[in-house]
Amino acid sequence: MLKNILLVTAVAATLFSCKKEGCMDETAINYNSEAKKEDGSCKYETAEGYTVPTTYTFKDANGNSTVSYGGQIDRLSQLEEMVVEMKSGITGMVGEQALLDMFANTGDNGGGNFSFSSTKQLENKCFPDDVQMFKDWMADLAFASNDFAETAASGQAGVLTSGSKKYLFDANGYEPVQLIEKGLMGAVFMHQAVNGYFSDAKMNVDNSVAVDAANGKFYTAMEHHFDEAFGYFGVPTNFPTDVPNSFWGKYCNVRDAELNSNSVMMDNFLKGRAAISNDDMAKRDAAIQEIRTMWETISARQAIYYLNAAVADLGVDNAKAFHALSEAYAFAWNLRYAPLETRRMSVAEHTSLMAQFPANMWDITVADINAIVASIEAKF
Fold first, then answer.
1. Tens of pLDDT, residues 70-99
2. What is the pTM of this model?
3. 9, 18, 39, 121: most buried, per Cβ within 10 A?
């Protein structure tokens, strides 16, 4: 998906190259009165005395781009292709080994299951304690897909239909594809960004010289680490003008009307990166805290949304209800990856929250769902 966005952007730039591009906002310090097409380059003076761009575009004094997060784009693309493979379980059997190969990126092409080659993988970036859990869920999905021709029921894996949509459930009424997809959004993308690249170990590094300018790496180590966190957020450089249709960028936008999450996330990614480029570590740290807090909040509020949606469908349209409950479980699980420095729910509280979900989703009641919602809302 992200690679497609970059391709479309390149084609569009070619088609409209006849128009002079530049900043068309008269309030910007680099306003170009001759520009006929906005190019997203507008810069604005800030109280700090340096400019913060309106898109995730940063250059050095010589005009070289200092932004790079290709590894993150590869991992997002890998999960997208895994999701396609997993969803095929509604019409046929999915191989457990194929999913494991994609997770570990066997042979740099997911055991032949990816449409592209990369040295990156999801498994070695996954929260270590949860790697086996995801492998177990992959085995569960593959096993459930053996019964793709059956109607799911308590104790029976199979497919349930809602209108034109079909969902594969295991024998306990959970939808493994949602547990894996949304779970890896947390265990890899969120975890690596908020705990990995925003950690002291990654932020307290050199910010004075380019990593390897002779080979096109014009960014400092600190700039690069911050960029990699942005890469895991998974949005175009001009977000929210353009919004992705998957992963955290999608759900950030879904929750925007409630949380103003688009502005909070993107503005702070821009402010934090600009602060790094201007050696303003206080502003960098403030931006990181805002991003960490909002990322956790998006996951919590998305879990609540799916729980409330399930209430209306439970017993009426169980396909939709159990689909929503599986997504809710994964988003609630992702609260586990919030950093200890900013998290609103303690480890013990989170353990208690997840214990409220039943082992068999067919046993859940509206009262149970409402109790889970109350537990989350008490902290968010």
1. 999 999 999 999 999 999 999 999 999 999
2. 0.88
3. 121
